[in-house]
Amino acid sequence: MSQTRFEIQTAAVIGAGTMGRGIVMSLANAGVQVLWLDNNPEMLEQALGVVADTYAHNVRQGRIDEAQAAARRACISKAADYQALAEVDLVIEAVYENLELKQNIFRELDVIVKPSGILASNTSALDIDAIAAVTQRPEQVVGLHFFSPAHIMKLLEIV
């Protein structure tokens, strides 16, 4: 069996709640450029503030220096809409556990994200096959179940 290496240069996260924040920070900590989208602009602004505060706290604690914090913050950008996600290598959906909502998101992503893009859900309980079934690329849909807080817990369940 041959394997092809797939490098993730850019990612997107949908959802600015607790899990979305942690996932964005995990990606930024790894140096991945992240576009962040939430249907509530105020929630996204608040989440960006929490991320900045968390990095500032890490600097005060001596876990990272200011240059590292600045580099991580620079990896994170707001996305205005789904169309902004068209060229990312990976999209991680991190909205609340509602199959119909997740399926609607994946239908939209399937049309917009480049054909080689991987579509992932952070679901912990819903059927990934039911989410993948609404796309034209079910073989590129995965479950990435991060554990909370995602930027601290080094555990990722891949479905």
Structure write-up:
This protein has 159 residues and is α/β, with parallel strands linked by helices. It has one domain (10-158): NAD(P)-binding Rossmann-like Domain (Rossmann fold), CATH 3.40.50. The protein has 5 helices and 7 strands. It has helices at residues 18-29, 41-60, 66-74, 99-112, 128-132; strands at 10-14, 33-37, 76-78, 90-93, 118-121, 141-146, 156-158. It has a 7-stranded mixed sheet with strand order 3-2-1-4-5-6-7, sandwiched between helices. Strand 1, helix 1 and strand 2 (33-37) form a beta-alpha-beta unit. Helix 1 crosses helix 2 (41-60) and helix 2 runs antiparallel to helix 3. The longest helix is centred in the N-terminal third of the chain and has 20 residues, at 41-60.
